[in-house]
Each structure stands twice: as C-alpha cells, then as structure tokens.
Amino acid sequence: MLVHFLKKEFTLLLKTPEKFFSVFLFSFLIVLLFSLSFHDVSRASVVGLYWIYILFAGVLRFNQSFDDENEGNAWDLLKINSTGLGLFGAKVIFNFVILLLLSLFFFVVEQAIFPVYFLRSEILLFLKVIPLALISFAVIGTLFSGFITGGTFKELLFTLLFYPLSLPLILVCFFVVGEGSTGMLVLHLEWYRFLVGVALIYCIASTMMFDYYYQES
Fold first, then answer.
1. What is the 3-state secondary structure (H, E, C) of the chain?
2. CA dihedral sign, ordered 204, 211, 87, 106
3. For residues 36-64, b (16+ Cβ closer than 10 Å) or e, as one string?
4. How far apart are CA 50 and CA 22, in angstroms?
5. Least confident among 36-40, 52-56, 195-199, 202-206
6. Is 99:137 a contact under the CB 8 Å cutoff?
7. Cα–Cα distance between 113 and 4 in angstroms, integer?
8. Residues 206, 142: contact at Cβ < 8 Å?
9. pTM of the predicted model, to two decimals?
10. Digit-coded pLDDT (tens) for 156-204
C-alpha cells in the first residue's frame, strides 16, 4: 500500500503542479523579504534563516497534505480499503521530498542574494543535520494535518497544534550548527545527539498516533 500511495502522490504532483508552485512562490517571497531586511549576515545567521524558511514554507505544504482525501467520501473509502501506516508513510515521504526540494531552492536563492559562501566541508556538515530535521518536521506536520482533515478552521487548528510541538525541534536546529572560533561552521555534537533523539521520538510517536486515529476515527 505504501508504494501505491506514493505513486498516487507523485502522479498528482505532475497533474496539479499549481499546488506546489504556490509553495515555491511563497518560499521565494519569504527569502526576498528577509533579504531586504538583512544585509550583513554571518554564516550562522544564514543557517538560522534557512530554518525559518523551512518552517513557514513547510506549514503551507502540510496544510495541503490531505486535500485530495477530503474530496467526497475518499477518507471513509480509504479507511475501508487501506491501513493507516501505508497512507501516513506515503504522505511523510512525499512531504520529506518536497522539503528537500525546498531546501535546495533556498540554498540556491540564498547563495545568489547573500554574500556568504560555504565551503564543501561546511555543506557536508550541514547535510548531516538536514535529513534528521526535515523528517521530523514531515512526520509531525503530516500527523497534525491528518488530525484536522475535513474540519473547519483547519489552518488555524494546524497552527495551534504544530508550532508548540515543533518548538523543541526548531530550537535544536538553531543550536546544532554554529560558528566556531575560526568563523567556520561546526557541528555541536551534544545538540546533534539531541536532534537524533527528537527525530526518533517524533517518528515513532507520530506513526503510532496516526495509526490509532485512523482506526478509531
């Protein structure tokens, strides 16, 4: 079922690209806004801005996660013919891929706007952090999007649910990579270990909660 749902997600991506274009357009406007607000930025500041971009753009994407399942009686039919784990896993993987594409987009645009250039070693260091952080954002964003699917004021409810529980993850992301004494980016191992723990907890807890909600709703 996981493969089936994944194929459906990528097929919809090709058939309705306007949904995803809106996310990237919104992302570009965020980067442009911050570039007009900040001029002289350090390496650590650019990394911090990246997480802010991901947070705002991710919320817009997560709110779209279950739009197709809300049409008609699709949600009820899915519960009859499929398991929650397959659907949730496909949504998480797809959102993770979208966040990865957004990350690449942000990196390219930031390099074009800000006069801060990263060494290869710094990029490889940052690549150790990005997958853990993005999968954590993807699981909790997809979880809460599933919780409020079909409800009224879902954007408001999602914001009230997502931001408080994503706060620990956001704080860890800000501290896990910082500037060392030489001005180069360094990885803070104690924060990195904490990020690994947060990612595991979010992944396990979100999967169990969505499966329970899917069966009982």
1. CHHHHHHHHHHHHHHCHHHHHHHHHHHHHHHHHHHHHCCCCCHHHHHHHHHHHHHHHHHHHHCCCCCHHHCCCHHHHHHHHCCHHHHHHHHHHHHHHHHHHHHHHHHHHHHHHCCCCCCHHHHHHHHHHHHHHHHHHHHHHHHHHHHCCCCCCHHHHHHHHHHHHHHHHHHHHHHHEEECCCCCEEECHHHHHHHHHHHHHHHHHHHHHHHHHHHHC
2. negative
3. eeeeebebbebbbbbbbbbbebbbebbbe
4. 19
5. 36-40
6. yes
7. 40
8. yes
9. 0.87
10. 777 788 888 888 888 888 888 877 666 677 888 888 998 999 899 999 9
Two tokens, residue 43 = 């390496």
Instruction: Identify the burial level of 76 via C-beta atoms within 10 angstroms of its C-beta, where 0-12 means exposed, 13-18 middle and 19 or more buried.
Output: exposed
Task: For residues 55 and 94, give the distance between their C-alpha atoms in angstroms, rounded to a whole number.
Answer: 17
Residue corresponding to tokens 């990005």:
130
- 185-187 and 177-179 strand pairing: antiparallel
Per-residue model confidence (pLDDT) at position 100 = 92
Half-sphere exposure (Cβ direction) of 59: Cα atoms closer than 13 Å: 19
Strand partners, 187: 177
Q: Look up residue 43 and give its amino acid.
A: R
Q: 17-37 and 2-15 are packed helices; what angle lies between their axes, rounded to 10 degrees?
A: 70
